[in-house]
Amino acid sequence: MLRIAVPNKGSLSGPAAEMLHEAGYQQRRESKELRIVDPENEVEFFYLRPRDIAIYVSSGRLDIGITGRDLLIDSGADAEEILPLGFARSTFRFAAKPGTADGLQDLKGRTVATSYEGIVQKHLADSGVDASVVHLDGAVETAIELGVAEVIADVVETGTSLRNAGLEVFGEPIMKSEAIVVRRTGADAEEPKVQQFLRRLQGVLVARTYVMMDYDCRVEQLERAVALTPGLESPTVSPLHNEGWVAVRAMVPAKEAQRIMDDLYAIGARAILTTAIHACRL
Ligand SMILES: Nc1ncnc2c1ncn2[C@@H]1O[C@H](COP(=O)(O)OP(=O)(O)OP(=O)(O)O)[C@@H](O)[C@H]1O
Ligand SMILES: O=P(O)(O)OC[C@H]1O[C@H](OP(=O)(O)OP(=O)(O)O)[C@H](O)[C@@H]1O
Ligand SMILES: [Mg+2]
Fold it and tell me: Where, subcellularly, is it found (predicted)?
């Protein structure tokens, strides 16, 4: 049975459960459940604190886990990223009161408050900057107002929390993060159960980012039309009863679907339809 760690709380937990559900796995019914077995899929899910997941996986007790890239790096655990999942996207940045810091050099001799001490210490060491780091569990934006630090380093998504605290980011982003699947470093990459799990999640990612497009076009326009909808490998072209016309079917990126429909229409394609993809294996 495959043993998988899933975030039990925070920004990662809802979207992770939703993705697993879309991939056909049973998920817990209520948030107090710490562990469930999905016998049909031969998987056991452990609901753990997102911050602890890389540590459990690196210990070898759990086969894989879903966590944030920033949490993996921060933990220093002996685990590696095997699949990015495209949700809980954020950047990790330094911020301070406007006009008080401009770049890394301004951190020298100052105190940085953060919940991600591992990332910050490593970044400071790599950059050769001597600053103190104070660990706080959360709501670090308030640390400057209350005099615990002059600078913070935190997760930034929309920037609303920083604005509300009257702070501004400075310097280059320390890292970009998103939800990821992790496994123990060097674990067997070919393990069939792990491969099947990854294929299911990849299927969800593809179903979320692509739509199926169908249209009819004149044979003379086929090459131009196919250039607009090359598909993932190659589009399907079928003859129509009306001579001189063909039907084309190809997957296209959902974000570009409307523009592609306009372009196809402009070159004479008609009956252009898009439909959602519910699941796939590429
Ligand atoms: N506002 C946000 N937008 C996107 N991702 C976020 C946001 N806040 C945290 N994350 C991501 O969520 C993960 C942290 O999860 P964690 O549950 O520890 O914190 P949280 O979501 O802030 O929850 P809480 O602080 O309430 O426990 C990290 O990968 C982080 O990048
Ligand atoms: O840029 P934004 O869209 O405002 O998102 C970033 C904020 O979201 C998270 O905080 P959360 O609400 O989880 O509280 P926390 O600081 O206690 O973790 C993170 O720690 C930032 O504070
Ligand atoms: Mg938080």
Answer: Cytoplasm
